[in-house]
């Protein structure tokens, strides 16, 4: 029995989220640079926690173990919100960083890594969001065609 590809993607999302949490926690703990108190770094810490401990476990476990909590509109909504958050987060931190030639200390290098992992998280959530929205679209079309089929069957009776 083959494992669906989405489980591997969710695992990678969780691992990348943990990496972002660790790196941003390191930057916040340094207290020696101006971005140790930056709202962008704090947002990325929140976003790593959101992805690792809330969104991805929900997206992974709800359809299997809690089907009543896995509403067909909630799963794409969580995907879209998380995707938008990652896009905003990695763009914001990337815009604040100095050029790579001037980024020579540990905190700055950690934020460069956070930017890269944030971009990868965004790409992963773009892919999973696409499939969640397509699944919702297919579900809507299959429901409409089933209703039309039943309606046409009653017309001939």
Describe the protein's architecture and organization.
With 157 residues, the protein is mainly alpha-helical. The chain has one domain (5-139). The chain contains 4 helices and no strands. Helix 1 (5-30) packs antiparallel against helix 4. Residues 145-157 have low confidence and may be disordered.
SSE ordering: HHHH
> What's the number of structural domains?
1
Question: Which regions contain 5 or more consecutive residues with pLDDT less than 50?
Answer: 145-157
Query: Total number of β-strand segments?
Result: 0
Terminus-to-terminus distance: 45 Å
Quote the beta fraction: under 5%
Shape: elongated
Sheet having the most strands: none
Number of helices: 4
Rg, nearest Å: 20 Å
Structural class: mainly alpha
Helical content band: over 70%
**What would the average pLDDT be, to the nearest integer?**
86
Topology:
Layout: H1 5-30, H2 39-65, H3 74-96, H4 106-156
Helix pairs in contact: 1-2, 1-4, 2-3, 3-4
Subcellular location: Membrane
InterPro entries: Marvel (IPR008253)
Main location: membrane
Would you kindly provide a brief summary of this structure?
It is a multi-pass membrane protein. The protein has 157 residues and is mostly helical. It has helices at residues 5-30, 39-65, 74-96, 106-156.
Properties at a glance:
elongated; 157 residues; single chain; 0% strand; mainly alpha; disordered C terminus; 4 helices
């Amino acid at each position: 029995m083959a494992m669906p590809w989405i489980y591997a993607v969710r695992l990678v999302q969780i691992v990348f989220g943990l990496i972002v949490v660790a790196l941003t926690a390191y930057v916040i703990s340094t207290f020696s640079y101006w971005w140790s108190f930056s709202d962008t770094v704090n947002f990325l810490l929140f976003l790593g926690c959101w992805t690792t401990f809330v969104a991805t476990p929900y997206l992974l476990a709800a359809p299997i173990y809690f089907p009543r909590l896995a509403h067909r509109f909630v799963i794409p909504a969580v995907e879209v919100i998380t995707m938008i958050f990652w896009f905003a987060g990695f763009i914001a931190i990337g815009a604040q960083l100095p050029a790579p030639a001037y980024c020579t200390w540990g905190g700055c290098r950690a934020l460069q890594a956070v930017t890269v992992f944030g971009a990868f998280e965004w790409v992963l959530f773009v892919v999973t969001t696409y499939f969640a929205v397509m699944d919702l679209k297919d579900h809507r079309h299959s429901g409409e065609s089933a209703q039309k089929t039943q309606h046409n069957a009653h017309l001939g009776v």
